[in-house]
Batch of 3 targets.
Target 1
Amino acid sequence: MLGIETSCDDTTAAVVQRMDDGTYRILSNEVWAQHDDHRAYGGVVPEIAARSHVERLDSIILKAMAKADRNFKDLDGVAVTAGPGLIGGVVVGLTTAKAIALTHGLPLIPVNHLEGHALSVRLTEKADFPYLLLLVSGGHTQLIKVDALGQYQRLGTTIDDAAGEAFDKTAKLLGIGQPGGPMIEEKAKLGNLGRFSFTSPLKHRKDCDFSFSGLKTALRLEAEALTSPTKQDVADLCAGFQEAAATHLSLRTQNAMDLLSKDAPQKTPSRLVVAGGVAANLAIRQKLEKLCHSQGWEMVVPPTKYCTDNGAMIALAGLERLAAGLAPPQDEAMAMAPRARWPLAPPPLGGAFGGGKKGPKA
Ligand code: KG4
Ligand code: ZN
């Protein structure tokens, strides 16, 4: 299966093979990260991202095919992110995948980007269903119960920024470069944890939603109060921010664990899967590991290259859908429009999707 992913700022294509025993061989996984194209603007510029995908996707696909040592006629299908994401990039990926599928007579399998993240752990680990997924990336922060392929229950989501977005915006404010997550983690290593103790957001709420805007503002106020911040000031601010973000992610995950064991103790998963770019952060991982240890849960984090956006997770979702007979009919797949918004799962406990920040974007 060829997998194509272009929903944000990584131009990616991979070829993945499903073995008879249900495990996977990743034959290639090509990623062109667009950081350099966006650096001057302090964040991802959708129009620039779309143009970069147009310029690079063909060659990235050919590279992935060559590395896998396969021709298009060897494939069983083409899986592609059809949303949610920056619409220009999704248009580029989906249109390219449709063209390849039409030209070579291959099935097209449009995939929800979040399903790719939800399943990505299965590329390298034996992760049987069900499990609890904490997805923490630049675009999404969600807690999802993964019951089976195509069966997802969203327990919580962010009511404002995604975790990675909060790291990126905070790094921009502190003027320490992009992408913000790794920069803040690096600076925090030299920081004094006790100097700025930011409150963990939404502490009074026992649900599983996330919020980062209050934390961002608290940091901005502290930063503005320093007339000419020294390197140590910046390191201390980074350490305080990272600690509060890690505590927040851990407390909300604990709420999800509590909710699941209260709802159906005999069917409670005991595995936490953490995916998305923010899962690379060691301080966050340590907090979550501590939580899992205290709750008797196992924690699994896919290798970083499969945590961040990649074509392999999209190919895997396509393969699983094909094997389970859950690929859409071809006329439907070919007619599918790219989607900027595409919730993976219904909202918690039968609530309706709201508008704005509570709605499908969140
Ligand atoms: O999953 P990803 O590669 O792309 C999507 O957003 O889909 O995640 C990128 C995000 C960025 O916001 C980046 O700052 C954040 O992940 N990130 C980190 C770290 N490495 C990447 N955040 C905190 N600590 C890190 N070490
Ligand atoms: Zn992603």
Target 2
Amino acid sequence: MSQEWLEQSIIVLTGIGEKMLQRFARRSLFTLNDLLFHLPVRYQDKTRIVPIARLRVGDHYLVKGELIDCHIQQGKRAVLSCTIDDGTSVLNLRFFHFNQRQVTGLKKALEQGKWLTCFGEAKYGRQTLEIIHPEYRIINKNQLIQMDESLTPVYPTTEGLSQLVLLNAIQQVIEKLQQNTQKPDAEPSAHADKPLAHAKEPSASDKEPSANKKPSRAGLIEDFFPHSMRQELNFPTLSEALIYLHAPPPDCSVFELMEGHDPYRGRLVFEELLAHQLSMKSAYQKHQQYYAFALRTPARTVKKHYSAQFLQQLSFKLTQAQQTVVDEIALDVQKNQPMQRLVQGDVGSGKTVVAALAALFAMENGFQAALMAPTELLAEQHRINFQQWLQALDLKVGWLSGKSTAKQRRESLAQIADGSVQMIIGTHALFQESVIFKRLGLVIIDEQHRFGVHQRLALLQKGENKAIAVNQEDEKISFYPHQLIMTATPIPRTLAMTAYADLDCSVIDELPPGRTPVETVVLSEQRRNDVLHRVHNACLNKRQAYWVCTLIEESEVLQCQAAEKTHAMLLSQFPDIAIGLVHGRMKTAEKQAVMQSFKQGDISMLVATTVIEVGVDVPNASLMIIENAERLGLSQLHQLRGRVGRGTQSSVCVLMYSHPLSKNGKSRLMTLRETNDGFEVARKDLALRGPGELLGTRQTGLAEMKIADIIRDQQLIPKVNDIAQRLMDEYPQSVTPIINRWIGQKAQYQNV
Ligand code: ADP
Ligand code: MG
């Protein structure tokens, strides 16, 4: 079926010239196809007149009434205020005009009429409900009013692109579609219905007589959704669904369209979710086709048994959950396909050890492993840990961060390139162009939620390119490293299925033994002195505390200044305890020295900015005070709180808030007081902030879908997932067209 007409520029439509074209482009609307998939956000009901007494604030209505008052209010600019009465109630109408003459003219015109119909959004007025700047028409009392036959769609628009122009353009495309969809069930579904290779059984459409009256080719839209699946899901055809949403039938109510789960809307929601799922799954599949070196367990090779030695030297046993995940990783990396595994585990569940074991699998097979962390502070912590662990095994740790000096950097790069370091740790500086690995077998990304999806994919791609460029000594094979991604933001399963459809997922669902849950206390800032006093006492009794300074502004400078001030204040107030300071603007060596003293117990109280949010691990610290806690997000607070409660000592986290406390802010603090469970916190966070913030996916399609809503529609996801898999297996030719139709340009990010 020819789809060319859909790829035509919208300039072919009546009423659209070059200038208009640019305005459409601002909303990424270029072709007729784009218009067809630019779906209404809501609908206006001009099909019936609503009694004024039945209006509800916030909705749009068509009303009819008699003008009972009409006067000009003088002020900065003249306002015409009118009141209409329809026998059920009265409604105020207000018109703003810039000059007196216009207002007077309007007043005259209205008064001559006496009866009006008007349309607009009902709002609270001074005494009655009101509509500001309604669309209106002057009528005779008994005049028959021409009403719309069906609901009017309202489209997402942009400056310079009026609703009317948009509506007009889209309606023209819909008309083309309508003209050719007289008998939708007979719509030929072209190749989408022919399963791959040999047809298993003739699909319903194949059985249909091919002598159906043929609609003209232009004006049809190909349904890439196979007929058999459409029937199974009880979905209408694509053109039926599109026509229904863009030009709802006369008897359809706004409520039905927006709330009712009609199959038309349902089909499009499903298909959009499907497109996203397919896009991620194709990325996964594409990646699986690359070659990776299988990392065998040493029993089957002559290499050293580093991982076993490492486990022996650890002071604890892996938890069952850690062991399970390590086994999953071991299975993955023994294949000649790159591992793409995500490990989710609450703060403190012990992800670092799991990462270390994975890295050792690479090293015992003669490969390098790279570990990337989102902050320098965390990267440094990892460096210290890994150095300690690997020293005994005679393995060397390399280091790269944005703050390395030119000389350090040159040395590091040389060591990474000649293979004299096996474990490489750093910030995102690790994946810059100039970094060439000798034999990179594994990439680990810690706290990936801090990077965002795009960044993660871009970083992986860079890692891959590097790896391709490196040939193994004599064999000239290019290879991809295995990938291990770690996150402390546990998300509900259905959401993970969508957001991480390009990864295999593991969960560490157990904390190491002996931890006592952190007790969380919510206190007003007015109790600050009280809190200070208690923390001081605790420190005198050999406990260690974090004092976290936050600010509204994202400005790191201001945050650091606040921390400096607090530090100075505490120093003068409590000369008898050792108080340290750490923030993001300190020199690397300084930060490291402070963290080290804190870890060794030389410092009792550590004043810090939110730099310590991720990854920092000082098990003996058992107190945390967070200032202005109401300003931070739920997940961030949970992460921060995760810095305590890592040892056997019972820990307390004090969330201090300042007034006034917003409802949302209060709800966040209460959630934290009530639960220590990361999944629960994430669920609440999702409800409060939406998926974009939580997953760092604001820029990917996930958070900005046209019609689907990943939270509202999550119950569909298992089915979407199932259909996506079957499409890929049985109808692979439908996959790319569906992705392109819904995601288009954006898919390129997901298909790196
Ligand atoms: P995460 O990165 O998951 O937040 P870490 O890897 O930093 O957690 O581990 C938190 C703390 O728990 C560390 O001090 C670590 O040494 C310790 N730990 C990890 N696994 C175990 C275990 N199986 N038993 C006891 N302690 C453990
Ligand atoms: Mg960690």
Target 3
Amino acid sequence: MQRSLSAIQPTGVVHIGNYIGAISQFVKLQDETEAFYFLVDYHAMTVPFDPKELNKNLLQVAATYLAAGVDPTKATIFQQSQVSEHTELAWILACLTKMGEAERMTQFKDKASKHAERASVGLFTYPMLMAADILLYDTNIVPIGDDQKQHVELARDLAERFNKMYGETFVVPQPMIKKTGARIMALDDPMKKMSKSSVSPKGYIALSDDDKTIAKKIRSAQTDSVGTVGYDPNHRPGISNLVTICSEITGSSPAQIIKEFEGKGYKEFKEVLAQVLIEFIAPIRTHQAELLADKGELVSILNNGSARAREVAEKKMKQVRSALGIKL
Ligand code: TYM
């Protein structure tokens, strides 16, 4: 059976972009593959963070996984920092990565350019930790949004390089990126990606937003002056983004949605989209709150998942040490 693996950073809230681009794929793949989905708490440390917030976010994201349909009886759900092999392999992969390769990572360039003097070395080596996350588990498929594609490509390059230099050790992973919905844009600025770390909460719909907040954010989402519901991401990014979100949640194609709203304006479309999102998010939000009321169950799911992940990772690291000549 093929193995799928992916992760979410426990920073900020999980939003509808994370769901559409990534989590919706996890839910599907847990039935078709041996699945590993986890919380990358070490990745969350690459930018300044508050330990109390990180602790809260870990449980919040674990609850979101479950509430959105990731099933711990089907998938291994775990915490990165409970499996120390991740940081161990990351060091080895850092030694295999060229400076130029790491410097080309667009996410590093974007984030570092915003806080040049404060950017950490960890932010620079983040893609090697992500490559370790993937390669430790002999992963075949990595379901992700478009923004993580370059990182998975680096993981592929590093796997091939290692295999060539030290002998066949790693499976070369494939990214799995949706045709539509791989890059949901910010509601208040459709030229930018919807992001957890965005300054204004107006840009995203969180899976924990209440009905009123969802309706308000959709009502104020940026569109254009054309006035008709259309789909043309290059020329009309705002309305196209809303159509994409509607399409991904309802399962109707953009063409069907456009047809349905022929002769109607943005206001009517936004009212329907808000309702679609409210009906989709309300049960997730309720389930999340129930799960968070009993921290014990979440912690036990993560501990059990981490024990299972550790078994796989320990075995792989033995192979790696042996290939590198450090096993005596
Ligand atoms: P993170 O936490 O930023 O995002 C989690 C997942 O959501 C996707 N995503 C989006 N998809 C569509 N539209 C958007 N606006 C949008 N924003 C985010 C991301 O592509 C991602 O799939 N480095 C990763 C976490 C990670 C990882 C891994 C992923 C660490 N190790 C190993 C896969 C395999 C990250 O920060 O994702």
